[in-house]
Amino acid sequence: MPVTDVQHDMETLTLTITADFAAPVERVWQVYADPRQLEKVWGPPTYPATVVDHDLTPGGRVTYYMTGPEGDKHAGYWHVTTVDRPTGFSFDDGFADLDFNPKPGLPVSHNVFTFAAHSGGTHATYVSRYASAEALQQVLDMGVVEGATSAINQIDDLVVS
């Protein structure tokens, strides 16, 4: 399994996931740069993603929805803040309605994804920061650790095929 560690810290309001992939940094970068590849790993296996808009540039927007086993759809968006190809990017990630309007009352996280060469592969660090301990607890209660871990663990199969 690529995920090697998961930590949440209520003082710093962060959720940090680390993973190691058996592929070079540029290959891992491509997973996020290509919307069709991103669809294969953004949601957990039982909630595959469909990327609708994909502009991975500073100021750009990515919109997506995940479809559950019963056909239920859950939408979200990214507002891309920085891009440092191929070593990482940052974005604000929020919940949305099916027209991709932000859902009030649900947390928005600021995310920093970094990719570094390590032992012939890539060491990835995914840090999500929330505005409050309550917001972090809300996503923890929603199963973000299990969902993100299962989603990230799909990347290895994609990058080695």
Automatic annotation (TrEMBL):
Give the matching Pfam families. AHSA1 (PF08327)
* Leader sequence segment: none
Q: Which domain of life is it from?
A: Bacteria
Residue ranges of every copy of the Activator of Hsp90 ATPase homologue 1/2-like C-terminal domain listed in the record: 22-159
Tell me the protein family, please.
Belongs to the AHA1 family.
Q: What protein is this chain from?
A: Polyketide cyclase
Organism, by scientific name, is Couchioplanes caeruleus subsp. caeruleus
